[in-house]
Design goal:
Chain A is α+β, with helices and mostly antiparallel strands and 249 residues long. Helices cover 29% and strands 33% of the residues of chain A. Chain A has two domains: 20-83, Winged helix-like DNA-binding domain superfamily/Winged helix DNA-binding domain (Arc Repressor Mutant, subunit A, Orthogonal Bundle); 88-247, Chorismate lyase-like (Chorismate lyase). The interface between A and B is medium-sized, with 29 and 29 residues. The structure holds a DNA duplex (21 and 21 nucleotides).
DNA sequence: ACTTATTTGTTCGTATGTATG
DNA sequence: ACATACATACGAACAAATAAG
């Protein structure tokens, strides 16, 4: 029977055939959609929600897991569960710089270098950079974030001859722009951008702190010097729940 | 029970409600989309694929027939099955026209009007078209395809005052450009484009002929007259496996 | 620097309802 | 009617991260 409890606060019909956790998830979703809990705000604690609905904490967790799986909220151990904010508008233009874009949006840009190494350019990279296949290139793998929330995981390649110690400089400054500046390239611009989508696998999920199965924007870009010579190319996987690419014509 | 087999090599969840051949077709499609098998390359033999998945060759044939039907691969008796073209490159520019883009790629553009009706503009549409909320707008839902393969399912809105019988004209001509021409708008250009990603639900899957869970590109755009007045706005869901958006600066 | 309280995450166990063959 | 499998729901305890004093 299981319902010899005091009384749930939600005066709603039993809704036959709908599980408890589902009803709680719907209630929370409605509260979020209605703006009762604004973007960025913290949800009540699990125990509090459980008490309010008169259910076990596990049931609340199941409901929250559902919302988290859909990217509506994000749980952070030790601090709480937060409503995901609106997507960060990420303009794609000739002058596309990660840190500038994030900064303009009033958030703090972060970049963590995951790995770096020297490797010969494979066919695809060589074609993008217009260099002979096999030319040594520096490869930088990193995760970029705004206010500590990971936005994208990706790789940037640049010819090793241009910037032999790119990794070191990036680690010190946290900026690709600075790496290029140190290599004597004071300015550059976005030449081409190709966009597709994918679904996060376990690796993406771990890097971007989201659940597997969530959508990703896959962005492949080439940057050139002011006189049109390719200087870097990147492939990035963006959490689509957190970013929105914008093209203005 | 159906799983008294040895063990499929693909360690993927059962994906309830999806037939075996469909899953194999998706796996092959993904491998092709990811470039594991490049355009023009030959697929492994049917018997080899069957062995790898631990299924009967007939099941593989059914999967390949599906891909062939969608134009992704081409089977040639006696020599093998070959991958056709890759993703359709879809440039986003001031002059973005579906039929032109598909035509330039050497494929035949198709558009099927799924539904149309007159409705008051909600907040989001009103903002995009810069009209008062509640203004009557014509809403056209359609599925667009190339060589019979669905590429996108979406909706276009335009102020009813501009083109009262938009649906009729679209049905006759199959072109939004013609609809606008009939309304006295000889030219228009893309003003803004916003791109995010999503995961296909059952409805998307049915409309775009793909399986639920596959990635989609969600494109929201506004077109304006040459003097900058918003004239149409659209939201489209593109099968990311078949399309690649391109931005050139 | 340290402690304490709070909050989510994880792992046991138990019981029950439901669908399947 | 029965056995089995699975998802749901509850309970208790502890681990781990975070925030506050």
């Amino acid at each position: 029977m299981a319902r010899a409890r005091e009384k749930p606060v939600t005066a709603r019909p039993p809704a036959a055939g709908v599980t408890l956790w589902r009803r709680i998830a719907d209630d929370l979703e409605r509260a979020i959609a209605a703006g009762d809990i604004a973007a960025g705000e913290k949800l009540p604690g699990e125990t509090e929600i459980a008490a309010r609905f008169g259910v076990n904490r596990h049931t609340v967790r199941r409901a929250i897991a559902e919302l988290a799986g859909r990217g509506l909220v994000r749980a952070a151990r030790g601090s709480g569960t937060f409503v995901e904010g609106g997507r960060l508008a990420y303009p794609i233009s000739a002058r596309t710089r990660f840190s500038e874009i994030v900064g303009t949006a009033g958030r703090e840009a972060g970049g963590r270098l995951v790995a770096s190494r020297l490797e010969p350019a494979d066919g695809a990279i060589a074609r993008r950079l217009k260099i002979p296949k096999g030319t040594p290139v520096v490869r930088l793998d990193f995760v970029r974030s705004a206010n500590g929330v990971p936005l994208s995981a990706g790789t940037t390649w640049l010819p090793a001859a241009r910037a032999p110690d790119a990794a070191k400089i990036y680690e010190a400054t946290g900026s690709i722009t600075r790496v290029l500046a140190a290599a004597g390239i004071s300015d550059y611009r976005r030449y081409s951008t190709r966009v597709t989508a994918a679904v996060a696998d376990a690796i993406d999920a771990a890097r971007l702190d989201l659940s597997p199965g969530r959508p990703l924007l896959v962005v492949e870009s080439v940057d050139v010097t002011p006189d049109g010579k390719p200087i870097t190319t990147s492939t990035g996987r963006f959490a689509a729940d957190r970013v929105e690419l914008m093209v203005e014509n």
